[in-house]
Structures are given as C-alpha cells and as structure tokens.
Amino acid sequence: MKKYLIIFLLCLAFSGYAQTPVKQAGPTQSTIVKDAAGTVYPYDTWRKMMAMGEYSIKAIPGSTEYLLYPVSAEEKEKRAQRIQELLKNMKPPGSDVFKEGEKFSGEKMTDINGNKYDLSNIDNKTYVINFWFIDCAPCRDEMPELNKIVKQYKANKDVVFLAIALDQRSELKSFLKKTPFDYNIVDGGKPLANKYGIKGYPTHVIVGKDGLIKFSTTGFGPGTVPSIEKTIKEQIGN
C-alpha cells in the first residue's frame, strides 16, 4: 500500500492537472471524475488507476469536473524520465551504522593486490568505501556506475576507493575476471563488517580528509551514485 501511495503522489506531482485556466483547489473525494464516454468513477477507483501509472486526470475547462484519460506511451516515458531525475537529485537516507559528522574508526587493511591502507590514520585523503559481496544483486548492479566515478578520479591520489568484500580472495579473483569492479578490493571483510554492525548491502561510507564521516547510505537507488559523486567533489573542492 505504501508503494502505491508513493507512486500515486509522484503521478500527481507530474500530471499537471493543476495547471489549468480554471482556478480549482484540486480533486478531492467528492470531485466528479469521468472518462470520455461520461462514465463517472468513484474516488478509490480513479485513484488506484492513477497509482498504477496507466491513467491520469485533467480539469475540464469551465467545469469543476475532471477527465480521466489513458496515458500515452510517450507521456509515460517523459514522466518516468522526470521521476528518475527527481530521484537522482534526492539524497538517499543515511545508513544505520555510519553517522555523518562522527569520527570514522578505521583500521589497517590490505587489498587483493597487496596494497596496504591505514584507515586509523586518514592522512589527508578522502576515502570512498563500499561494503559488498559477490552474491549481492544490487552490489553488482551499481558497479558500472561506480566504475565511472573511479575512472573520473583515477589521477587524483587524494581520493581512495576501497571495496571491502565479504568473500575470499580466490572467489573475488574469479568473479572480477567476468565482472570488472575498479575499486581497490579488500577480501575477507566479514569480521570488519560485523565490527561496524553492517547488515544491509551495499553499504557506502565516505570519510573526509579530517577523518569525519561525510556521507553514508545502504542499498542502491537512483540517488546513490550521484550523491557519492557530489560528496567527493565537495571534499576535494571541485
């Protein structure tokens, strides 16, 4: 029900039915809503039809009534694009385990290529960290977009990308042959994830040069990667 309510509100936000020559307060439970054949629909019925994204309503000029009409494929596409842009600009909720503004408690670790990192001493760098595992579908889905960010900052040695995997090195080596992930991969990260109390994946956390947490979130949605990129830019001053 909550899902349908969110979809319904987004449909209302982009339907444009309020932008009419006749000043109206907008449809209510008592508003007459009918289709082109004149059939009047009950409030719960037309609301559910809109929530499914197949229909929309618009004010009938010179009347207090509204017309229920089927949404065209072109309009659906435009609406989907607008909603996608809206979601991209929305900052995702913070994770339950990493709180923005708090000091990050890190430790020493080594990636699968033997490179060493000391997150107990941030050393004036920005750390972009991702907790994940191979069988995590959203973790895999976000990799192509995350790779684009890594490529963008490849020449900047002050931005360090670390992907702390729950899997072991041999499993990761095999996986990465088919699925590129350009973060620096740290294997056997389950004890560390347990230490932080991470229960959802992927979990992202960005630590600024001052050692404070600047951003965190759990899961992968439209706003995840844009928020990561925005936070990195803020930290390096670009």
Question: Can you characterise this structure?
Answer:
With 238 residues, the chain is an alpha/beta fold. The chain has 2 domains: 2-88, no CATH class; 108-236, 3-Layer(aba) Sandwich (Glutaredoxin), CATH 3.40.30. 36% of the residues lie in helices and 20% in strands. The protein has 7 helices and 11 strands. The strands form 3 sheets. It has a 5-stranded mixed β-sheet, with helices on one face. A 4-stranded mixed β-sheet has the order 2-1-4-3. Strands 5-6 form a two-stranded antiparallel ribbon. It is elongated and about 70 Å long. The two termini are 42 Å apart.
**Are there runs of 5+ residues with pLDDT below 50, and where?**
1-24
> Could you give the order of the helices and strands?
HEEHEEHEEEHEHEHEEH
Total number of distinct structural domains: 2
The overall pLDDT, averaged over residues, is: 85
Quick take:
The chain has 238 residues and is of the alpha/beta class.
Layout of SSEs?
Elements: H1 2-15, E1 33-34, E2 40-41, H2 43-51, E3 55-59, E4 66-70, H3 73-88, E5 108-110, E6 116-118, E7 126-132, H4 137-152, E8 159-165, H5 169-178, E9 184-186, H6 190-196, E10 203-207, E11 213-218, H7 224-236
Parallel strand pairs: 1-4, 7-8, 8-9
Antiparallel strand pairs: 1-2, 3-4, 5-6, 7-10, 10-11
Helix pairs in contact: 1-2
Write a concise keyword list for the protein shown above.
4-stranded mixed β-sheet; 5-stranded mixed β-sheet; disordered N terminus; 36% helix; alpha/beta; 238 residues
